[in-house]
Design a protein that fits this description.
By secondary structure, the protein is an alpha/beta fold. It is built from 10 helices and 15 strands. The strands form 2 sheets. It has an 11-stranded mixed β-sheet, with helices on both faces. It has a 4-stranded parallel β-sheet with strand order 12-15-13-14, covered by helices on one side. A hairpin with a 4-residue loop joins strand 2 (about 30) and strand 3 (about 35-40). The protein binds threonylcarbamoyladenylate and magnesium ion. It is an enzyme of class 2 (transferase).
Length: about 325
């Protein structure tokens, strides 16, 4: 992969216009969303999408989310449904991804879907992402902007730490607000939770008036990306720790004595926003990481999902 100079662009009108120009030319640009930074490439341009996989070192059976400016733009690519309309009306723009059957005339590179007949679409809420997508007026494929298998980036510095020299630019708008990736709902059949994320599953169930089927990651290829050892720090990770051993650094939650605290007041929203940055800092110490128990409700589902992956045995 050729080394290039990676520009750090300000998230102002000039920076966003430059980012749109680069994307239109088939270049890769990392950009902020409310969840994490995405590594964007033109989803209609196979070469650009191949570049995403190359820059991340990502296994190519792992399909990508197409980011668009509006539900109207999403409908150009997927077969819309009444349930999609209800969810989009309630939660877009926001941390929700919908997986829907592709339209015959979808125009999306096959590298985005990795050969599936469905497409994951999302309308992000971050103002910089919204302006960029509206300016570009085409779908942007964007996985989280980290090398495959590493911790997701919630700042432009995290992006550059992993991808400097491998992408054309990063739009820097400071830290992401939500801090964990979007919730993914499959809508090809029964509404199914494919990945817990920044929008609590309970809110979706309340709106639909039914519980979601669960088909969590790792089950099979309909929920790919779900390699178990994902989001992994370099150091080993031990979950549900009440106290660190002598060599460990301790990631706490609630009123505990620790090296980093996800939320001293036990607020799960704050914990999600801090999760990846705290892991990045603890990982940089080179010590094994012990992590306090996190309640399995609301955003705790997404946090625990990421932590279990961080703790899973590593792929060779
Ligand atoms: O918040 C987010 O979703 C971030 C920001 C950048 O938008 N993006 C993100 O992308 O997390 P990524 O590539 O790291 O995760 C996308 C997930 C993967 O687990 C992938 O397998 C799943 O979406 N996915 C994509 N297309 C799919 C499809 N057609 N069917 C099932 N799962 C799909
Ligand atoms: Mg990712």
């Amino acid at each position: 992969m050729p080394v290039q100079h990676t520009l750090r662009l300000a998230a102002d009108p000039d920076g966003i216009a430059r980012a749109a120009e680069l994307l239109r030319a088939g270049q890769l640009v990392a950009f902020p969303t409310e969840t994490v930074y995405g590594l964007g490439g033109d989803a209609t341009n196979g070469k650009a999408v191949a570049g995403i996989y190359a820059a991340k070192g990502r296994p190519s059976f792992n399909p990508l989310i197409a980011h668009v400016a509006s539900a109207k733009a999403a409908r150009r690519h997927v077969q819309w449904s009444e349930t999609a309309e209800r969810l989009a009306t309630a939660f877009w723009p926001g941390p929700l991804t919908l997986v829907l059957p592709l339209r015959p005339d979808h125009g999306i590179s096959e590298l985005v879907t990795a050969g599936l007949d469905t497409l994951a679409v999302r309308v992000p809420a971050h103002p910089t992402a919204r302006t960029l997508l509206a300016t570009l007026d085409r779908p942007v494929a964007a996985p989280s902007a980290n090398p495959s298998g590493r911790i997701s980036p919630t700042t432009a510095d995290h992006v550059l730490a992993g991808l400097d020299g491998r992408i054309a630019a990063v739009l820097d708008a400071g830290p992401c607000g939500v801090g964990v990736e979007s919730t993914i709902i499959g809508l090809s059949g029964t509404p199914t939770l494919l990945r817990p994320g920044g929008l609590p599953a309970e809110e979706i169930e309340a709106l639909l008036g039914q519980s979601l089927a669960r088909h969590l990651q790792g089950d099979d290829i309909s929920a790919p990306g779900q390699l178990l050892s994902h989001y992994a720090p370099q150091s080993t990770v031990r979950l549900n720790a009440t106290a660190p051993s002598e060599d460990e650094v301790f990631l706490g939650f609630g009123p505990v004595d620790c090296d980093e605290n996800l939320s001293p007041t036990s607020d799960l929203t704050e914990a999600a926003a801090n999760l990846f940055a705290a892991l990045h800092r603890l990982d940089a110490t080179g010590h094994p990481i012990a992590i306090a128990p996190i309640p399995e409700r609301g955003l705790g589902l997404a946090i625990n999902d990421r932590l279990r992956r961080a703790a899973a045995p590593r792929m060779p």
